Amino acid sequence: MSEGTSDRSADLVSAVKILPEFRGESSWEVAKEKIPELMAALKKEGFTYLADLTGVDNQGEDPRFEVVYELCDLSARRFLRVKTRVAEGDLVPSVSSIWKTADWHEREAWDMVGIRFSGHPDLRRILMWDGYPHHPLRKDFPLEGLPTEMPDIAFTAKAPLEGGPFVTSSALLSQDREPRAHPAEERSL
Amino acid sequence: MSSAATTLEVGDVLARTAEGSATLSGTEIGEKLVLNLGPSHPCTHGVLRLVLELDGEVITKADADIGYLHRGDEKIAENMTWNQFVPYTDRLDYLAPLANNVAYACAVEKLMGYELPPRAKTTRVICCELARISAHLLGLGAFAMDVGAMTMFLYTFTEREKIYNLIELLTGARFTTSFTRVGGQTRDLPPGFLEGVKEFSQQFLGKLDEFGKMLSRNRIFVDRTKDLGVISAALALDYGLTGPNLRGSGNDYDVRRYFPYLGYEKFDFDVPVGQAGDCYDRFAVRMEEMKQSVKILLQAIEKMPGGPWMVNDPKNVLPPKDKVLTKMEELIHQFLVVTQGPDAPVGEVYFGAENPKGELGFYLNSRGGGVPHRLKIRAPSFCNLSILSHLLPGHTVSDVPAILGSLDFVMGECDR
Q1: Chain A nearest C-alpha distance from B158 (Å)
Q2: Global model pTM greater than 0.90
Q3: Contact indicator for B70, B387 with CB cutoff of 8 Å
Q4: Residue B10 contacts A, CB cutoff 8 Å
């Protein structure tokens, strides 16, 4: 799908890194500074529908976070994923001026993963309440939760089955959580 | 958030209103009144909270506050195996659990690289369309009730009851079905199920005509829905609206058509599209969609293929129960798949399915093994509600129930 930007400046094309195709889906990776320019160009190319915007926490990697955009071109029936990597505290340029739907998706990425967006009209928490101190979808946030000023609502009791048989442990890294990562004697089978 | 609001009790209406006027800062609050609607209000169909700024009866500013039903499904998903998450998908759009099960299973199968056997595909098509009819029926009944037609709700519930009986026959549960597994379903179709669906479909078309006669030319209903809550096609797509809400505005995007899955390209059906993009058109699109669903159901019954209904990959797919109880190999495989989960490859996929409320998408990020690294649910109701702050200003308070009813959202899915 590289023809999408072929008539744009060579600068923009060289900034895009094309990732290997997986299950028929194309993915591009781009530096976060290039996001507004690239997204505006892609929208002009026909990607008028932003299906989804996600924040991913890859704890232990540098930079730690990833923002994933799923774009759809409805007239040409094609799909494109654009990814950008972000370190803790970095500002990602908001695309809410390009697609209005990004407004709530970016608020959710801020609320859940703690990725900040610059140029967003109203970057408030969306699912948790204003003033909630944590970002629950970070890998260092435990499954049972962390104490807050509202213990009755966001309670932090251990999950009832945690530690029991057939329950994956809530390790920091997903590799460690995976039961096959542990030697047989460690497994609680 | 103002400091006064933090010290007040949660659940205090005055506190919420005070907090609401703080979130709407930037306007002169003088002649204007801030009205706090919800989170527990009959017309919000769950726990949506709206903060409305009124000038007389006209809304000048609106802010939707969601999250009252947030259960952290995405966090939970990162802590369990792929199959264990299926019951959680029941509770997303809890009016169409079967369709959610199918969408989730298809997403994981895309990650695994499976091609389903034809019988499993057609079974899932029946599941999706039954769920669509039942969800639209509830949406229709609740919408009619919101604008003042109580009877409709009782009629649609009678039909829904018949669907629930069929779902019970199929899955053993009426509401929380958890029917799919990675690579297929929990069980094959029970005897008598297809006949039951056929019988339901044939009598349902007549009922649907009755419902249409009760509403579509009803003076009160038309007056309360025509030219109300108008969304243009471009704006709808910009806000990420999908499903009947987008098609009511004239855009014919239907995932079943544009990116066919489960063999939908082999079925003959129409995608109804509205013109005006008002509440009435969204209602009309849903009515027609039910008819098309019946059409798909009858075709699916007609060409239901035989053969296997699970993918053949013993190391990652649950074996049939009767063999688990009698054969050594299958017992071992069952144990491994249940305890460690299907061994997914490293990679990421996005799969969107056409659910009753719109495009339900799953973004799966796998680092290999039995648990997801990140599972994002692209909830159609979440995107459909994001347009409210743009749509509501200019309407009167009495229009709010009609607009909310026509958007037909479910908070369980919106808040996840």
Answers
A1: 35
A2: no
A3: no
A4: yes
